[in-house]
Each structure stands twice: as C-alpha cells, then as structure tokens.
Amino acid sequence: MDDKLPAPLPAPLRDLLRQKLVDSWQQALPRLTRRDTWIPRIPGKTLAVIGMRRSGKTSLLWQEVARRLEAGAERSWLPMLSLEDERLLIHSPGVELLDQLLETYFQLQPQARQVGAQRGCLFLDEIQRIPGWEGFVRRVMDSEPIDVVVSGSSAEMLSSEIASNLRGRAVEAVVYPFSFRESLRHLGLEPQQPSTHWSSAERSRLAHQLELYLHCGGFPEVQGLEERSRQQLLGSYVDSTVLRDVIERHAIRQPLALQWLVRQLLSNGGGGFSLNKLHGALKSQGLAIGREHLAELVLHLESAFLIRCVGVVGGSLRRQMALPRKVYPIDPGLLSLYELEGRSNRGHALETVVLLELQRRGAEVGYLRTSSGFEVDFHARFPDGRRELIQVCADLADPATRQRELRALLEALQEPPGHGAQARLITLDSKAVPSSNAEPSSKAVAWSNAVAWLLE
Hints:
Strand content: 5-15%
Strand order of the largest sheet: 2-3-4-1-5
Number of helices: 18
Structural class: alpha/beta
C-alpha cells in the first residue's frame, strides 16, 4: 500500500490561493438586498446554504460576513472565496486544494488558530467543485478553532446528502427567491409601518406591487426586467436546473419525458397530480417510462428546488398514498412560462406565494380533504405548535365562491386533524373582508388581505 503524502500543489497555485485570500478581505462588501432567510444558530455546526440556482445563495454568504463584522470580528478572519475560479481547477485538484487554502490562511493570520472568544470563518462558495470537500469540512470542524460556511449547486448540495456526508455536523439555510417583502425592499418600497397605519394611497401602491410580484416572481436578477427578457432569463434557469441538476447528475436517459413532465407540473401550479395519470399521458405520447422511474423524476425535480410538493394530511397512510399530491413552482414567475394557452391565473399564483411564505416561516404544510370532499388549500403547523387551516382565493366577489370557500373551512374545523386549528381565508380583495355584523359563520374564520398577511 502506498502511504506517500500527496505531492504539494504547484507554486503558482499556492501563490494564487494566497492572493485570493488577501484580495477577499480587502474587498469591500457588496451592497445587496437584505434577506430574511432563517438561519439556525448552533455553535460547532457548519452552515450549508442551499436552494435553487440563482435564488441568492452567494448574497446570503455576504450577509453572514457582514453580520460577523458587526459583531466585532476581524475582516481578515472572514475570507470569502468562490471555488468556481477556473485557475484553481486547471490541475483538477481534490481536497489538497482546501488543505492548502486552510494552511495559507493560518500562515497569514496565525492568531486565528488560537482558541479564544472570537472565531474566524471560512466562507466557501461553490464548494461542490472540489471532490472530497465533505471530509475536509468534518475535519476542520472537529480539529480547528474556526467555523465553515459553504454553499453550492443544488445538484451537489442536496439536503439528504448534506445530512449523510457531514454526519450531523451541518445545519441548513434554504434560500428561496425574493419574498414579497424582500422584493419591495429591493425596489426601495418596503413599508416601515404596520398595515393598520397605511394610508389609502400606500395600500393601493402595495396592492399594485403584489399584482406585479404574482406575475414576475422573486428571482433577484429578473426584478425590473421587461417581459421578453424576464421570460428568457427564467426559461434559462429552468433549463439549467433540469440539465445540470437532474439530467447530468442522475444520468437521465429519457430527457424528452423529463421535459414533458416539467411542462406538465409547472403548468398546473396548485393542482393535484397523479403518477398513474401522468404515466398514462406519457405513454399516449409515445414516451415509454416506468411508473417508478416517473416517481423518481418528480423527486429529482423537488430535490433541485424547482418544484414544491404538498401531500394530504389526516387519515390512514393508505388514504394519504391514494390521494394526489399538489405541486407548486418554486417561484410564481415560473407559472406564466408554462400556463396553458398563455392564460394568467392569479389564483394559482397567489396560492403559490402563500405556500412559499408558509415554508419560509418554518411551517410543515399539507392540504386537507374533508369527508364531504371539500378541499382546504393548506394545513400549516408552525414551529411554536400553532396550527392553521388556510384557504386562498384571489377573488371572492361571487357569493357562490365565497360560500364554497367558507364551507370547506368550517367543515374541516369539525374533523381531525383540523379540529382546534385557526381557520383563515386569504384574498386579494380587501372589500371581501366581512363587517362586524356579518353572518356568524364568517366570524369563525380569520379574514386576511393578502398584502397585509404577506407583510406581517
């Protein structure tokens, strides 16, 4: 067995690492829109930043650098490096590149190796480019007085793989595209007062901005783009995710079937899907694919953060398996790319935005089907134990629609697992909120204007 140590890195590569470290702590922090992403703060754990491509993971790393600086950390103790630099990868290095990076860092900042109240931190972006990075992170967290924050492509930074490869030494922060509040902040329009203090003009302005957000979505780079450029950019995000995070990563041999599946799922935002029906539809298109493989493709798309799936809650496991799951895109802006016949559906977009906001708030989300067959859009269980039944309806002007939505909520409150939860109806129509002399059934439900609820 050959126990020789690996050959040292070429001198030019070592010099490049040194220069990148020096450059990183002399670089001014970029001016970025502050994100509200929840980050677990657990000492001794690596932070892994994950999410769909182009959702803002690198920006969140910079935000963490700024937070540590505000807490009194030395700038030179917080190097931020992108490992996608082709000059670093020209010799196809492995973990020895990270070892040399760490050693060079301690040579430049020897005091950072001393155990004390202040800790340095390596911020490593696109770390998946280095084979064996997981072992390096485990070793550093176990043996060095320094923290590590990593981010990378969702193809290599799946939640399940982080848990397995880092063996309990990592916590995750999931980055979504901009929320409605973050999009307003990006545009300089974030309200500074609670909704009870908004003027009529501000309410109108915010309602208009929500309509734009429902159509354009929250990916940072598309904010303010004209329609054709926006659609082209969002289409490239989907294509890149499907190609690199699904087809290449999982060696998919039927890309046409996958592309058909993506179009079907993204054109049906908020709708239920059945694997049996999808399998039959694919077969009718002449695309032969096994049902089990189709289920794997859906899982791959969800793992790549392109879609979010919601299952029914309550009842037996057999019932939960039999009823269809509902599918949503990771951003409402993707709906207009794929909705059939180019029709815009505000209801689907609003339902998508509410689901993503619930997940940002840490809720476990499913949907309910009552014994009479009525459906409640979401059953949300929050980290503090609160439960809500949430019905989403863009327009409640039609009395029949209003009655149907209320009846589903009221019936769900009488059945497990809805019993004891808070019922809520979220709508775009502020005029639909009932007055104090409304019928008793309305008073059992919390009515929320979508703008106010999203900006709570």
